[in-house]
Amino acid sequence: MPAKRLVVELLNASGEPVPSVTVKVTGCGELQTAPNGRTLFLVEDENVTVWVNGQEAHKGTLAALPAQLTFKQNGGGWTA
Predict the structure, then answer these.
(1) What's the predicted TM-score (pTM) here?
(2) Which of 8, 24, 41, 74 has the smallest set of CB atoms within 10 Å of its CB?
C-alpha cells in the first residue's frame, strides 16, 4: 500500500490550536506542532500508532487511517 498523508491537529479545551507539542507516528520521526496546532506525516507502516507528548492517542491500521486526526486536550491527555 502506498504512503498516506496524515495531518494531526491538536486543540485545547476551548478549541484553540496548541503549538509546540511533540507528536510521533509509527515509522516517522517526532515533530512539533506548528502555530496552527498541526503536523504533517507521510505514513507507510500497516499498523499505525500516534503518540502526543509520549502518550498513545490513536492506534489503527493504515487502511482505516483518516486524512486528519484532531485531538482535544482533556486534563493531562488528549481525546479524539
Answers:
(1) 0.94
(2) 74
Residue 77 has pLDDT above 90, yes or no: no
Distance CA 31, CA 23 (A): 5
- Taking the CA atoms of 21, 48, 60 and 7 in sequence, report the sign of the dihedral they define: positive
Side chain identity at residue 23, one-letter code:
V
Amino acid at 58: H
Task: Tell me the pLDDT tens digit for each residue of 16-28.
Answer: 999 999 999 999 9
CATH fold group of domain 4-79: Immunoglobulin-like (2.60.40)
Residue spans of the domains in the chain: they are 4-79
In the predicted model, what is the mean pLDDT of the chain?
A: 95
Rounded to whole angstroms, the Cα distance separating 8 from 50 reads 9
3-state secondary structure of 80: coil
